[in-house]
Write a structure and sequence with these properties.
CATH superfamily of the largest domain: Type I PLP-dependent aspartate aminotransferase-like (Major domain)
Strand order of the largest sheet: 1-2-8-7-6-5-3-4
Order of helices and strands: EHHEHEHEHEHEHEEHHHEHEHEEHEH
């Protein structure tokens, strides 16, 4: 179990992003946390060691990453995993047969698949609701409900969940409130401050920011949850290797800088998109026209670089997705490079068609992850792809 250090909470976000959870190597004075590429540790005698026994249980590189992200989220404890889905899997292991979860309907397709096609086999049930209204969440509660789970902003419809309202509801009913904060990152949003008990990240995305590793993270300030998650992390063993931890830790050092640029580019590109005839609708909470813009402004410090657009036809969506040159057609998001994707056939292909249609996720929807390039180049790239698709 990795706990943040008191000193890690004394400074501003950018300072903590660079320094929290890390100390110069005591042997060499190395500024960067070393990659402790080892599976085991020499013990001084039976029952006597230096705090490390086996790398599934403890690794200094992993611990530095866990402390760092926990500090950025304002949490006391951090737990790193081999992927975002491994983090969600460990979260769902907090439940038992007969338990019920109320989840947002618009969540990452892999999260939906894990819930519906794996955990239902073990007796856990799920109700997926549109969480833009707190009444829908409350109506879905049953005597067996133990957890409320959401993303905000959602992937890919960019809907918002009122974190304070859901946090109050969860507390009133004694439920575990879990928030996937991957899209917003702790730079723009800190769900624990609004009543969440547990925050999840795919560190693959913005926290790492360089598209060169896969990982997940859970953070909490609850001692009881931390004890259970520490046991699950070690017992199930879905931990990341030290190299991936080091890459993510390298990424968090520039998180504040990168998120400012993602946000600046997102705002510029989103506004330009609203002026294009080929675009039927722009989904971006930073636009005043977004129906939940006021909520986004209240619970977020910025709006980020994720944008979805409705293009009106599958053929046009395919031509645009395949026609960009600066935006690369690829899965994932949150890297320094701009990516374009087609959720219906990529990230959300495992979500049933009827459910996609109900939430407005059409086959003509395209998702953009605006990187940190010059915004004029991003606009020019989209413009040429739009013109070629008409």
């Amino acid at each position: 179990m990795t706990k943040t250090l008191p000193a890690d909470r004394e400074h501003g976000f950018a300072t903590r992003a660079v320094h929290a959870g890390q100390r110069p190597d005591p042997v060499t004075g190395a500024v960067m946390t070393p990659i402790y590429q080892t599976s085991t540790y020499v013990q001084e005698g039976l029952g006597r060691h230096k705090g490390y026994e086996y790398a599934r249980t403890q690794n200094p590189t992993r611990e530095a990453l866990e402390r760092n992200v926990a500090s950025l989220e304002g949490a006391s404890y951090g737990f790193a995993f081999g992927s975002g889905l491994a983090a969600l899997d460990s979260t769902l292991k907090l439940l038992r047969a007969g338990d019920h979860v109320v989840s947002g309907d618009n969540i990452y397709g892999g999260s939906h698949r894990l819930m519906e096609r794996i955990y239902t086999q073990y007796g856990v049930s799920f109700t997926f609701v549109d969480m833009r209204g707190i009444d829908a969440v409350e109506r879905a509660l049953t005597p067996a409900t133990r957890m409320i789970y959401c993303e905000t902003p959602t992937n890919p419809m960019m809907n918002l969940v009122d974190l304070a309202a859901v946090g109050d509801l969860a507390q009133a009913h004694g439920l575990l409130f879990v928030v996937d904060n991957t899209f917003a990152t702790p730079f723009f949003q800190q769900p624990l401050a609004f009543g969440a008990d547990l925050v999840l990240h795919s560190t693959t995305k913005y926290l790492n920011g360089h598209s060169d590793m896969v990982g997940g993270m859970l953070v909490t300030s609850r001692d009881d949850l931390a004890e259970r998650l520490g046991f699950i992390q070690n017992a199930a063993g879905g931990v990341p290797g030290p190299m991936d931890c080091w890459l993510a830790l390298r990424g968090t050092k520039t998180l504040a800088l990168r998120m400012r640029q993602h946000d600046a580019n997102g705002r510029i590109v989103a506004q330009w998109l609203t002026e294009q005839k080929v675009v039927h609708r722009v989904y971006y909470p930073g636009l005043p026209s977004h129906p939940q813009h006021d909520l986004a402004a209240r619970q977020m410090r910025g709006f980020g670089g994720m944008i979805s657009i409705e293009l009106g036809s599958v053929d046009r969506a395919r031509k645009v997705a395949e026609g960009t040159r600066v935006f690369s057609l690829a899965e994932s998001l949150g890297g320094v490079e701009s990516l374009i994707g087609h959720p219906a056939s990529m990230t959300h292909a495992s979500v049933p068609l009827a459910m996609r249609q109900e939430m407005g996720l059409t086959d003509s929807l395209v998702r953009l992850s605006c990187g940190i390039e010059d915004p004029d180049d991003l606009i020019a790239d989209l413009d040429q792809a739009f013109r070629a698709a008409v």
